[in-house]
Design goal:
This protein is of the alpha/beta class and 317 residues long. It contains nine helices and twelve strands. It has helices at 3-13, 23-28, 79-86, 88-95, 127-142, 157-168, 190-199, 234-243, 307-316; strands at 40-43, 55-58, 66-72, 98-101, 145-155, 175-179, 219-225, 249-255, 265-271, 278-284, 291-292, 300-301.
Length: 317
């Protein structure tokens, strides 16, 4: 069994700060000085008494009513490791937006994976989805965040939890991006989760009682490697089918390998006449279970295409 798949299998088995100016106040006076606090990558205790604490990146010059990207780490990662390979912080500093990095809590999973497949995490108001949603609302209250431009993304188990969040908190996010993840409602325990990751979903049915991805009114970007031995690429197809608008038409576009050595990829766009929703699936030729175009490090393939840039372009268009 490839090392990434083996690790994921083991993973599955196994005082408030002063309030920032309100959204309404900033909308009336966009030039008002922002009280974002010290710039940089730091703990975010306002999310609650968490161990370890969530992290947040605060740009040195945030926009008035800035976007917020919520980035969810994968297995055997933490917030700092995800920030390092994705380079979200460098992009956020350049563009003036915030990045929130929720942290899986000690003792919940032996390999620090999000438990995206548990029934409590696939319904609204419970489990890890509710915990992350509360952290997002805390960031909106503390910083000059535009609540209409909040986005969520994640890698592997983090990408799967991002799918849960989009379905269970559909009004909280404007758009989402799932990198090498799994859709909601395809597993209810660790054994089923690993089977879906390895082989793809068993059928179109969704587990009863879980949140409905059709409730999400925004757009979704899916990034998946064709050579991923840990998460079968069929899971990306299932994500697209679950989140695409009813009556969606598929359009395919090929992008050749870059002169810098980046992988080629296929872009699959799902759009329906009369609907503003869009789902885009990017299948990267030869990419294994790794963040595409990331900085050198574990769970990263620097060759690209640059998934961080692709996601920000999708979010900010």
């Amino acid at each position: 069994m490839p090392r990434a798949a083996a690790l994921l299998a083991a993973c599955l088995l196994a005082a408030p700060a002063a309030a920032a100016p309100s959204f309404e106040a900033l909308a009336r006076d966009p030039g008002r000085a922002l009280a974002a606090g010290p710039a940089g990558f730091r703990d975010f205790p306002e999310a609650g008494p968490l161990l370890p604490a969530d992290k947040i990146f605060v740009p040195s010059h945030p926009r008035a009513l800035a976007p917020l990207v919520v980035a969810l780490h994968g297995c055997q990662q933490d917030a700092a490791a995800l920030a390092a390979i994705t380079r979200w912080n460098a992009l956020a500093e350049a563009k003036g937006f915030f990045v929130l990095y929720p942290s899986q809590q000690w003792g919940r999973n032996g390999y620090n994976c999000w438990n995206w497949y548990l029934p409590a995490d696939q319904v609204a108001g419970l489990g890890e989805t509710a915990e992350v949603a509360a952290a997002v609302r805390a960031a909106e209250a503390r910083f000059p965040v535009d609540p209409s431009r909040v986005f969520v993304t994640g890698l592997s188990a983090g990408g799967s939890l991002a799918a849960d969040l989009l379905a269970c908190e559909p009004r909280l996010f404007a758009a989402g991006a799932v990198h090498s993840g799994v859709s909601i409602g395809v597993a209810e325990d660790a054994v089923a989760a690993f089977a879906v990751m390895k082989n793809g979903p068993l059928g179109p049915a969704r587990a009863p009682g879980v949140c409905d991805p059709a409730a999400f009114p925004g757009d979704l970007l899916i990034v998946q490697g064709s050579a991923d031995a840990a998460v079968n690429p069929a899971n990306a197809d299932r994500l697209a089918a679950d989140f695409a608008p009813r009556g969606a038409v598929l359009t395919r576009t090929r992008v050749r390998p870059g002169a810098n050595g980046s992988y080629g990829y296929e872009v699959r766009d799902f759009a329906a006449p009369g609907s503003r929703r869009r789902v885009r699936e990017i299948l990267v030729d030869g990419l294994a279970h790794a963040w595409s175009g990331g900085a050198p490090g574990a769970a990263s393939d620097p060759r690209g295409p640059d998934a961080t840039a692709l996601m920000w372009g999708f979010f900010s268009r």
